[in-house]
Automatic annotation (TrEMBL):
Catalytic activity: 5-dehydro-4-deoxy-D-glucarate + H(+) = 2,5-dioxopentanoate + CO2 + H2O
NCBIfam families cross-referenced by the UniProt entry: PRK03620.1
EC numbers for this chain: 4.2.1.41
Protein name: Probable 5-dehydro-4-deoxyglucarate dehydratase
Entry-linked Pfam families: DHDPS
Assigned keywords, A-Z: Lyase
Lineage, highest ranks first: Bacteria, Bacillati, Actinomycetota, Actinomycetes, Kitasatosporales
Annotated family: Belongs to the DapA family.
Pathway connected to this protein: Carbohydrate acid metabolism; D-glucarate degradation; 2,5-dioxopentanoate from D-glucarate: step 2/2
Length: 316
């Protein structure tokens, strides 16, 4: 029996997932024109979906009004070509409020980020996510990371919940993920629950996650170097190990080492990369801070190296 997922969104999430940054102007205010340009260029470059106002998009720093404006703009730019998924977070009441804003803006789904600050037990997490799913008509993907780590039993209950279509993993515990995948498959037979690799610079662990059947992932690199990100994704999909290893060794591993040089670089360094690509998206908002100028220079050199590696592969 082929597993099925009745969600229209689930059927459309196939390819490289784009998490745009949120641009701010010199005065610190939302730059909606730059956001539209960023989303539009990502879709035209080949993104399979737009995840607006999530972690890379500084969800934590946006007002509800800014959030609604960005999600609506992403929906308009997508124009049905690809689905738009919006972030939702904080406590249950606020997550439901953001879900309502996303629904009003025309989003296709929600990425439910961890509840704010508190370390809840499994019963509390289950109550939180099921309440969110019950309060919206949008499909929900649960983001496991930080203070929201699920047991296999909790994942089973989420998979059985109407409206919850998948789990994005930002922990990186492959033992846990294999147990979750196996338990859901055994306890909810015939249901294709979606799994996503949601680690920062997910390409670095792409081979490992594919080993347990997790093929969907979000690419921060796509924000500023879509050609590199798409080439890697294509190589991973087709089993082109030579290209995968060349880009891992020469680009992605050094990128992760650079990312690890500063707190918040999973967002601020990506935003610097978008500026390097020619789109002025401003700085990150507090409490994040800008990356060191020397690190931005290293990022520029790395992008050049990545493109040189692509050229070397094309010439081989």
């Amino acid at each position: 029996m082929t597993p099925e997922n009745p969600s229209p969104l689930a059927a459309r999430l196939d390819g490289l997932l784009f998490f745009p940054v949120t641009p701010f102007g010199p005065d610190g205010g939302l730059d909606l024109d730059a956001f539209r340009a960023h989303v539009r260029s990502g879709i035209e470059a080949g993104a399979a979906a737009v995840f607006a106002c999530c972690g890379t998009g500084e969800f934590h720093a946006l007002t509800p009004e800014e959030f609604h404006a960005c999600v609506a703009a992403a929906v308009e730019e997508a124009a049905g070509r690809v689905p738009v998924v919006a972030g939702a977070g904080y406590g249950t009441a606020l997550a439901i409020q953001y879900a309502g804003l996303a629904e009003d803006a025309g989003a296709d789904g929600l990425l439910a980020m961890p509840p704010y600050l508190v370390v809840a037990d499994q019963e509390g997490l289950l109550r939180h996510y099921t309440a969110l799913a019950a309060a919206t008509s949008l499909d929900v993907i649960v983001y496991q990371r930080d203070n929201a780590v699920l047991t296999p039993a909790t994942a089973v209950e989420l998979a059985r919940t109407d409206g919850i279509i998948g789990l994005k993993d930002g922990i990186g515990d492959l033992d846990l993920m294999q147990r979750i995948v196996s338990t859901v498959r055994r306890e909810v037979p015939g249901h294709a629950f979606l799994y996503f690799n949601g680690l920062p610079t997910a390409e670095l662990t792409g081979l490992a996650y594919r080993g347990i059947g997790v093929t969907l992932y979000s690419s921060a690199v796509f924000c500023f170097a879509p050609d590199i990100a798409l080439a890697f994704h294509r190589a991973l999909d087709t089993g082109d190990d030579a290209t995968v290893n060349r880009l891992l060794d020469g680009f992605y591993v050094p990128l992760v080492e650079l990312r690890n040089q500063g707190r918040g670089y999973a967002v601020s360094l990506v935003k610097a990369g978008v500026r390097l690509a020619g789109l002025e998206v401003g700085e990150v908002r507090p409490p994040l801070s800008e990356p060191d100028a020397a690190h931005v220079k290293q990022l520029a050199a790395l992008i050049e190296r990545g493109r040189a590696l692509l050229a070397d592969g094309a010439d081989a």
